[in-house]
Amino acid sequence: MAIRRFNRSVMGAALLAAGALAAGVFSASAARAEPVFCGAHEPPPASCLPTSGETAFLTDVRGHVPGDDARLLATGRGICHMLKGGDNVNYVVVQVAVQLGITGEVAGQVVDAATAYACPGAPLNE
Fold first, then answer.
1. Do 2 and 50 share a domain, yes or no?
2. Count of structural domains, the chain
3. Beta-carbon contacts of residue 40 (< 8 Å; ≥ 6 apart)
4. Residue 38 pLDDT > 70, yes or no?
5. pTM
6. Cβ proximity of 80 and 119 under 8 Å
7. Are the CB atoms for 45 and 36 separated by under 8 Å?
8. 3-state class (DSSP) for residue 81
9. Domain that residue 90 falls in
10. I need a surface site. Which of 41, 56, 63, 92 has the fewest CB within 10 A?
11. Are residues 29 and 50 in the same domain?
12. Whose CA is closest to 75, among 61, 90, 63, 86?
């Protein structure tokens, strides 16, 4: 009888441990499934690295506007997100000027670079 009780308690402990492990795995999976956004909240976590178009955008604007690559990439993605969302291009230019502390003319060039490289074909609603 002592062996059966021992086996039952070992088996019960094993089932509890397996249940706890499964709960941990599922909760960790759920946590990883939540989106973690880079930049302007557009791309999923797997694409936090710049695309070839975004790299070309960074190359074009780097040194001409203040900010490191992460900030400039976020700005470029934000421009694309706003334009694809239907925002007026003039409004986007003003927002870029404010965010980066640059003139409207330079902000227009940043928006032009984003639409040329990072999101070609984005609508330019005026």
1. no
2. 2
3. 74, 75, 77, 78, 80, 81
4. no
5. 0.63
6. yes
7. yes
8. helix
9. 45-118
10. 63
11. no
12. 61
